[in-house]
TrEMBL record:
Entry keyword set: Glycosidase, Hydrolase
Alphabetized Gene3D superfamilies for the sequence: Glycosyl hydrolase domain, family 43 (2.115.10.20)
Protein name according to UniProt: beta-fructofuranosidase
EC number(s) on file: 3.2.1.26
Superkingdom, natural source: Bacteria
Species whose genome carries this gene: Corynebacterium lipophilum
GO molecular function, one term: beta-fructofuranosidase activity
Alphabetical list of CDD domains matching this protein: GH32_FFase (cd08996)
Keyword GTP-binding: no
Length: 475
């Protein structure tokens, strides 16, 4: 069977990591090895739908230009521990070797999930970052759901977290090793305090700016309304706290969403050179088929984000500084709009925008009746999405327009009125960053084709708007 290749580029990312065709989900095995960044990912090369998982692979010297690499890991022989899929996992680099840890999936009935599954944590190594040798199981199945090994070193020891269901509750289990081959149980690191959470996916535990951060995807029995938060089928967030080896993690914050968008999950971070912690998320969807499947592909990774922790223990997730190098010089547009008035930017394709509404213009804030500034993103004369600066709710909303093949409804993140918003527009995605990057919102956008025009509208009162557009550099 030949791997699929996409049939149309209308929404295929120009500056995000994606497979050449077929399906992808979680970023896996992120690392810096032998002078290059490596992004592996959950991949089904033969269909744009989830199926027997492989690890796809791309690499880059600079986080800007990504090279397509051959598929790194494929399912094993029938009956073997990874016969039905190479599921998510991580990588570490030690003594010139890349160690990749993943979950081997095997269906009990050999066909599907109906009779349960065996999930085994497994190891493969590589000395060139491209070709892998499998070494088999390192942690036997704990129960049906126990997966996504994330390995890190601390104080001269190796540790592995896995997400698991234990007695109906979502746990992060800890293992430890001296040599990366022999692993020993070290208890439960964390239990999600919410009894509605029955399973934890893709835990990622790391030390950052004096605290321990645990990122994970809580899987719930029953979706429960909680305002703007947890709107998706799969949601990822984090808690921050303290940890000493041989003890449980002690959270000092509540669970907080990592990103407010329609499509952001399975975030994985890694230690990059110069003591930086970078992370990628998966932009995709399990619950509803995305329109890009018509073009034989589904899913992309988010922009790489550089993480730091504020004194208030909130994560800042700014685009990695390298990303600025993708874009050309800024074209600046200033406008003063009266209530109901609009202005339209010259058309562009992929771009990075910085938009700053000035609520002190043309009248002082105290007397300004402006309620919203709305950016209508338009292609083929039809709006695909609206970015709403809501000065009363003090939030930014991203509304996917009717007929958008990426989804429906709106997502919303906190915003301080007057602050600048960073907007990254790829062919089929929108990523929003508040000025201090404590809030981000990432969604796909599959409606219309070709260059975008952006119409800016002021609602219910006047406003000054400053827009910087930096188009993507070509070739
Ligand atoms: C999260 C996840 C992981 C699993 C992988 C399978 O998106 O469900 O828990 O390892 O995807 O593709």
């Amino acid at each position: 069977m030949q791997p699929l290749r996409r049939t149309n580029d209308r929404w295929y990312p120009s500056f995000h990591v994606a497979a050449p065709g077929g399906w992808i989900n979680d970023p896996n095995g992120l690392c810096f090895f032998d002078g290059r960044f490596h992004a592996f990912f959950q991949h089904h090369p033969y269909s744009p739908a989830w199926g027997p998982m492989h690890w796809g692979h791309a690499s880059s010297a600079d986080l800007l230009e990504w090279r397509e690499e051959p598929i790194a890991l494929a399912p094993g022989e029938p009956g073997s521990d990874d016969a039905d899929g190479i599921w998510s996992g991580s990588a570490v680099v030690h003594d010139g070797t890349l160690y990749a840890f993943y979950t081997g999936n095997r269906w009990v009935n050999g066909v599907d999930d109906k009779d349960g599954k065996f999930q085994t944590q497994m190891l493969a190594t590589s000395t060139d970052g491209v070709h892998f040798e499998k070494h088999g199981a390192v942690v036997p199945p704990v129960n049906a759901d126990a997966r996504d090994p994330k390995v890190f070193s601390h104080d001269g020891r190796w540790y592995m977290t896995i997400g698991a269901e234990v007695d109906g509750r979502g746990h992060v289990l800890l293992y430890t090793s001296e040599d990366l081959y022999n692993w020993f149980e070290a208890g439960s690191l964390f239990v999600d305090p919410d009894p509605n959470v029955f399973m934890v996916e893709c835990p990622d535990f790391f030390f950052l700016d004096g605290k321990w951060v645990l990122i994970y995807g809580p899987m719930v029995r029953t979706p429960i309304r909680s305002g703007y938060s947890l709107r998706n089928g799969h949601n990822v967030g984090y808690v921050v706290g303290s940890w000493e080896p041989d003890a449980q993690f002690v959270p000092e914050t509540d669970f907080r969403l990592l990103d407010w968008g329609h499509h952001f999950y399975a975030t994985q971070s890694f230690a990059a050179p110069n003591n930086r912690r970078l992370a990628f998320g998966w932009m995709g969807e399990f619950a509803h088929p995305l329109a890009s499947r018509e073009d034989s592909w589904s899913g992309q990774l988010s922009l790489p984000r550089e993480l730091s922790l504020s004194d208030a223990l909130t994560l800042h997730c700014a685009p990695a500084p390298e990303i600025a190098g993708l874009f050309g010089p800024a074209e600046t547009h200033d406008a003063t709009l009266q209530a109901g008035e609009t202005t339209t930017l010259p058309p562009f394709e992929e771009a990075w925008l910085r938009v700053t509404p000035d609520l002190e213009q043309p009248v002082p804030l105290q007397t300004n009746t402006c309620e919203q500034v709305v950016l209508h993103l338009i292609r083929d004369d039809v709006p695909s999405a609206h970015i709403v600066f809501d000065t009363l709710a003090e939030r930014i909303h991203l509304v996917l327009a009717r007929g958008n093949g990426a989804g429906s409804g709106y997502r919303s993140m906190p915003w301080t009125p007057g602050d600048a918003l960073g907007i990254y527009l790829d062919r089929g995605s929108i990523e929003l960053f508040t000025a201090d990057a404590t809030e981000t919102l990432s969604s796909l956008d599959f409606l219309g084709e070709g260059p975008r025009t952006v119409e800016i509208e002021s609602v219910a009162g006047p406003v000054g708007v400053n827009v910087e557009v930096r188009p993507l550099k070509r070739g």
